[in-house]
Amino acid sequence: MDIQIADAPPGIQGQGFFATSLDKAVGLARANSLWPLPFATSCCGIEFMATMASNYDMARFGSERLSFSPRQADLLMVMGTIAKKMGPVVRQVYLQMAEPRWVIAVGACASSGGIFDTYSVLQGIDKVIPVDVYVPGCPPRPEQIIDGITKIQELVKNEPLRRRNSPEYQALMASYGIK
Ligand code: SF4
User: Fold this and answer.
1) Where exactly are the structural domains of the chain?
2) What is the Å distance from ligand 1's center to 140 Cα?
3) How far apart are CA 5 and CA 56, in angstroms?
4) Of the N and C termini of the chain, which has fewer Cβ atoms inside 10 Å?
5) Test site for ligand 1: of 109, 111, 117, most ligand atoms within 8 A of the Cβ
6) How confident is the model over 35-83, as pLDDT tens digits?
7) CA-based torsion, 6, 11, 13, 19: positive or negative
8) Which residues are near ligand 1 (CB < 6 Å)?
9) Contacts of 61 (CB under 8 A, 6+ apart)
């Protein structure tokens, strides 16, 4: 089996040197060492277990180190039905994560409430926190979850270091009542 190393970012290469921008070097490191916090409440969490197991092996993407402490995580993965009562808990976990942080809504329930169009279910976690990538499916297969991770990696790789200080990002946070 071929083992591939992460692609080098765009830059200038010569004999004995490689030069790129700080943004690209930091993006490369961040994208290939994401520490996910799995917030799993129901069946989509089972698919995530399969994604972590040897057949799919998320370690290949540098994400084998799961964190159950928000302070040591930079990727919140919400998987499963989120009842309205759980909404504030998801939000609190998000708030306890340090910037930069990213969010994946895994599956129909986390993305939109799924089949549970009821009074008690949050109709998507983007009602309480901003979401970077939505993974469709009920449940999504592990390949789809991995596709979501690679989409996040693309975002992370290409995110300018100053994005989090930009007026657009501040406005996005303000729309969720987050300073
Ligand atoms: S999207 Fe489907 S599989 Fe995932 S938690 Fe909801 S009902 Fe379960």
Assistant:
1) 29-175
2) 8
3) 18
4) N
5) 109
6) 999 999 999 999 999 999 999 999 999 998 999 999 999 999 999 999 9
7) negative
8) 42-44, 80-81, 107-109, 114, 138-139
9) 32, 34, 146, 149, 150, 153
Q: Where are the alpha helices (DSSP H) in the chain?
A: 22-31, 43-52, 87-96, 107-112, 142-158, 167-175
Greatest distance between any 2 Cα atoms in the chain: 64
* Domain 29-175 class, CATH top level: alpha beta
Residue 57 tokens, joined = 């092996």
Q: How far apart are CA 38 and CA 104, in angstroms?
A: 10
C-alpha 110 – ligand 1 centre gap (Å): 8
Residue of 138, 144, 145 with the most ligand 1 atoms within 8 Å of its CB, for mutation:
138
